Amino acid sequence: MMFPAPASPATPPRVVITGAGIVTALGLGWGKNAEGFRTGRTAFRPVTLFDVSRQRVRVAAEVDLPAVLPPTRLTPHRAARLDRASTMLLLATHEAWQQAGGEPAENIPLVLGTTAAGMALGEAYFLQAVRTPYRRQQQPSRALYYQAQVQGRLVADALGFSGPVTVLSDACASGASAIGHAWELLRAGHAECAIAGGYDALSQLVFAGFDALQALSPTVCRPFDARRDGLALGEGAAMLKLETLDHARRRGAVVLGELIGYGSTIDLHHLTQPQPQGGAAVASMTLACESARVTPADIDYINAHGTGTPLNDSAEAVAIQRWAGERAATLPVSSTKAGIGHLLGGAGAVEAVISLMTLREQWLPPEIAFETPDPACNFPIVSRPQNAQVEVALSNSFGFGGVNATLIFRRAK
Amino acid sequence: MSRVFVCGLGAVSPAGWTVAALREVLARGEPLPAQPLVRPGWEKSLRARLVPDPVPRPAFLAHPRLRRTSPVTHYAAAATVEALARLRTSDAPRRRLGVIVCLQSGCVQYSCRFFDEVLKGPATASPLLFPETVFAAPASHIAALLENTPLAHTLTGDPAAFAQGLALGVQWLEQNRVEACVVVGAEENHWMLADALRHLEHSAVIGNGAGALCLSLDPALSLGIELAALTDVHPYTARRSRHHAAQAMRDQLPAASPNELLCDGLSDSPRANAPERAAWRDWTEARLSPKRILGDGLMAGGAWQCVAACDAVAAGQFEAANVSLVGTSQHAIGARFVRAPLNTSNSPAGPTVGSISS
Q1: Would you call B153 and A403 a contact, using CB atoms and an 8 Å cutoff?
Q2: How many helices (H) and strands (E) does chain B have?
Q3: Where residue B358 falls among pLDDT bands split at 50, 70, 90?
Q4: Closest approach of chain A CAs to the CA of B15, in angstroms?
Q5: What does the pLDDT look like over A160-172, one tens digit per residue?
Q6: How many domains does chain B have?
Q7: Residue B29 and residue B139 share a domain
Q8: Confidence band (pLDDT; 50, 70, 90) for A106?
């Protein structure tokens, strides 16, 4: 029963990551992405997925999907239902599952974060419904498969997961919220392992929406740079296999890192603008540190939300400085959105995997386009490739609507 | 194990903007008349059961964050405010509140409007509309309206995901992250939703609105209702049909008892109803089917079931009420509410026996 549930363990179990899958415009999988992030490669190009000829901005970080998908349990008929978003979700989940050993997965919870789900299917539905109102072809399928929970079930069936699917839609914090929720499920004793992460594909509505807000950079996405003028959009997915340390040890799994803290708050200031003093962001980082039992002095790297918009980065900079105090002056920070754009519902999960990469491979991901320090950002921005000793990494995700989520990871020992 | 109490109920539905209006319509037991919903490009209209305009317009809708929002936010906010009325008049009106908004289709009106504007000319598409298309918008606005809200999340899924929202609320309460948590399920209407539903369940009539439950561990705040159980999540998988999942859910709830109510999710669609009808074929006692009267409210429908069940228990008509949430595309989950000692005399009137079919 979900309620009343069995008594929670007296001491919450440690939760580790034993599998990670990632899909971004830098490539498919850990290897290509690690190489791209380590060197600070950028992946922006003209948008080809939909018409942007009348948009102010015309570039984004599109993913090149493979011609052939990995073998799954889906029939050809059901595999044909995979749209762009669910294909990326499948690829990331498959990689995470394989990396974790690919053992049978009866009743494993799948926790997803997304903000657009199958938006492109919804757009296609709308267009056909308006332009050819009596044409029925493909509409039932679109009506069903644009929904995130249906996409989640499709991917679960593809890989043989039979557990519950939970979908969190906390805008740009969705991916981090999903991982945080899975972490809480494991610590409360509701499961011994879970698959969690986030995904979103580029879509015309969302692209045009950010353009209408004039939030897209007409030049180059430069988070925390004094000349920053907006964000760039991207697409992708990342999934983690989380399990209790005991469970991982019992099966001899390779541990990629440990998720030691999670904080979540809500910023009530405005639907799309953060509170300038970063109050909710401070609270989110503080809560995450409290649950991780670390202080800012213990953090070796921050993967910032860092969208590149003037307002977001100012508020996050204030928050980091308020939260970290003197430590801020020496605490390396970067935003990997400079390379792959803002992945919205996928961002928090992708950045969680990048944080694991820094812990596992001992480097910091640079923002190559960063040139002009903003006097308001009194912390070092990682702007050149560098190796570093990283024991604890913190990742921030802040969403439209104000949900702030912070994850803290520790290097596997 | 914690005891979790229901300390407030709220509802917006085609019956009106209160739980009392919902109760009255359910008591009559007659499906509300369907109204025409214009579908562009068609001479014939679609059918829907729509939320009437509120009379008078609630004062809180003048809040700066609610003035330009979409109907789904208005419905969710109204149900939330009603569900929190008792808490706010109690001796601890500033308790830390959690907000969990559950949606299936979400902000579809502004999404369609904005996309239509984009197709006509991106340069003139309204930047005010786009943020309101996001699933997280209603939770954000409600949290801002309530102010003392440290946590607000949005869950999406099929109508049974409302029970996942209840489970998350329980988790936040048990972790002492909040002192009370309102869980609200909401949807708004649009011709495209009715059109899509027609493709999937031809005879279903779309409805819209919201339903909200406020949960707390504090028995002093109880409406006289306790959350007794949330079954496991029974997902639909390649190897487990909706029939099997519905039966597994049903098997985790008690056998029929004279003093108990079943609040099911049966609608106007025989095909969609079949698994749930089969799972509950042994139920011989009182039964209430809100969707048959109010329309298929998607996530709001799941919330109405829980609100109606709790309201019937609070009224003293039943010792307990079981809620059967057999979702359309994801999972089946059951909930059970039982009568709990009432700490104040501020109880709702409750439905009449005539509303319940045996």
Answers
A1: yes
A2: 11, 14
A3: very low
A4: 27
A5: 999 999 999 999 9
A6: 2
A7: yes
A8: confident
Decide if B255 is inside a domain. Answer: yes
Question: Given an 8 Å threshold on Cβ–Cβ distance, is B41 in contact with A133?
Answer: yes
> Do the beta carbons of residue B356 and residue B312 sit within 8 Å?
yes
> What is the band of B343 on the pLDDT scale with cuts at 50, 70, 90?
low
- Total beta-carbon pairs less than 8 A apart between chain A and chain B: 213
Dist CA A157 CA B241 (whole Å): 12
Q: Does residue B350 fall inside a structural domain?
A: no
Mean pLDDT of chain B: 93
**One domain, residues B55 and B135:** yes
Distance CA A176, CA A162 (A): 23
Is the pTM here over 0.90, yes or no? yes
pLDDT at B346 > cutoff 50: no
B161 touches chain A (CB under 8 A): yes
Chain A interface includes B172 (CB < 8 A):
no
Across the range B92-117, mean pLDDT stands at: 93
Domain that residue B248 falls in: 225-340
Chosen from B134, B168, B244 to mutate, greatest number of chain A CBs within 10 A: B134
Domain boundary among B197, B221, B245: B221
State the CATH class of domain A262-411.
alpha beta
ipTM for this model: 0.98
CATH 3.40.47.10 fits A15-250, yes or no: yes
Q: How far apart are CA B142 and CA B147, in angstroms?
A: 8
What are the E-state strand segments in A63-135? 110-113
- By Cβ distance, the residue of A163, A169, A188 closest to B154 is A169
Q: What is the CATH number of the domain that holds B162?
A: 3.40.47.10
Return the structure tokens found at A185: 């499920």
Q: Rounded to whole angstroms, how far apart are CA atoms A237 and A340?
A: 12
> Is pLDDT of A282 > 60?
yes
